[in-house]
Amino acid sequence: MSIVRLLAAVLSLAVCAWSARFYNGQAARAVIGQPSFSAAGTGVSISSMWIAHGRLYVTDAAQQTVAFDLSAISAPQAEPAGQGSGCAVCGFKPVAAAAHSSPLPANLATFGKTVVLADTPNHRVLIWRNTRAVARSGAPDVILGGSAANTGSLSSTTIEDPVSVAFDGHRLFVGDAALHRVLVWNSLPEADDQPADAVLGQPDFATADIPEAPNAETIGDPVALASDGTNLFVADSTYHRILMFSVADTSLKDDAVTNAASFRPGTLAAGTLVDIGGTKLADAAVSAPDDGIHALPAKLSGVEAIFDGVALPLLSVSPGEVRAQLPYKLGNATAGSIYIRTEHSNGTVSVSSAANVTIAAASPGLFAFGGGQEPRSGLVVHAGAKGQSGAPVTGENPAAPGQVVVLWAAGLGALHSGKSAARMGVPFAGQQAQTAVPVQAIVAGRHARVLSSVLPAGSIGVYEIRVLLPADLPVSLRTPLLVVQNGTVSNTVTFPVMP
Known about the structure:
Blueprint: H1 3-19, E1 30-32, E2 46-52, E3 55-60, E4 65-69, H2 70-74, E5 90-91, E6 96-98, E7 108-111, E8 114-119, E9 124-128, E10 142-145, E11 162-167, E12 172-176, E13 181-185, E14 198-200, E15 222-227, E16 231-236, E17 241-246, E18 257-259, E19 268-269, E20 273-277, E21 286-287, E22 303-307, E23 310-311, E24 314-318, E25 321-325, E26 335-343, E27 349-351, E28 355-360, E29 365-366, E30 376-377, E31 380-383, E32 389-392, E33 404-410, E34 432-434, E35 440-443, E36 446-456, E37 463-468, E38 476-485, E39 488-489, E40 493-497
Parallel strand pairs: 1-5, 19-28, 30-40
Antiparallel strand pairs: 1-17, 2-3, 3-4, 4-6, 7-8, 8-9, 9-10, 11-12, 12-13, 13-14, 15-16, 16-17, 18-20, 20-25, 21-24, 22-23, 22-26, 24-25, 26-27, 26-28, 29-33, 31-32, 31-33, 33-37, 34-36, 35-36, 35-38, 36-37, 38-39, 38-40
């Protein structure tokens, strides 16, 4: 490569890094010190952090300093890194350790001629933009927070308990322990009380909720910060961990990840088929072959969905939506993190912000037709002979009280162990496997007997439920039906029932 092309490539990467940004409430992409984003056991106890030569250095309260390899933390992997939780970007062991160190305190950051100090007792942050040209009085050039900004309701200028700062030469970060958040300025502030551009740890500037439990988007106490220009590392003393937040080109909203059957956001189960909504996620709409024989691809038309560091199998991609399957092996985690990486046809690469995914044992969703007003018309068929599925239930061919109908679902979770274990993105190799969490059905307000809830042979994430309709079921062209698993209620679907 010529020198000119090399310089152009480096400049292009730099422009991409600084043009990408942090988004309000985005989730972290990796966690150090815990086996998952939802773990909160004994972990790291940090007093300061800094980055040098591709490593993150961490000093604990006992002045023990350890180093972590940044390349290992940032890179997506094909399989979990053997940490026991199914998470490839959780835990991590240090690559070096030293008994003594003299790091900068967490409330002080320097870069070139710039010095930033968190003045915790006075609830403010002081900035000297150029220490070589400091006024004779020694006064800072910019003051953020203090009495002027900390009046009234919470906003993008409020600073209550600044305990940590970081400045990477471009972006300024301030950790606020009282508000459980980190404020982000995309460039060094030039005026007093200049509003922050983004907030991490809270969904918006007006919220200061105390996290009920750790996940990929919550911050308890940001005692130390460090940035390499692309990634921000937040030491969270409440949950004994370090979270890695990354700049992004587009944003995934809080409700971006939904059950592909119910279209509902919120809690999801192992193996769930999910829809990930956003903008500019792909250049065109492309679907993967689904023949019940071949595995789904981890990259489709240049698009990858990265969940806890692992590329998920993809069913389809489009500019506004990516459809994928969550892993079956999630350990004991109750939260994870997902983002989209896209290699575009023009040679550029874009990355979305990460979104938190809440995980539970079951999150049932019933497949239905169309995307209209709920409840939608369900995908329901008559039970055929010898356990087979028969004709669709329609107005011309309705179900009858006392008959068996078959429904299809996503999000029914883990399966009873057998000779063939379910694997994400791979057609199920067994004959069928019963769901580990029992399924109940309610039809028109009546409990109905569930004859079976299984993952059929050749299926990828689509479960089959057989329901015996009550003999006294009232007739209706829009009979409502829902299922319940472990107290979690599915969406309601309708189907015709006639004598």
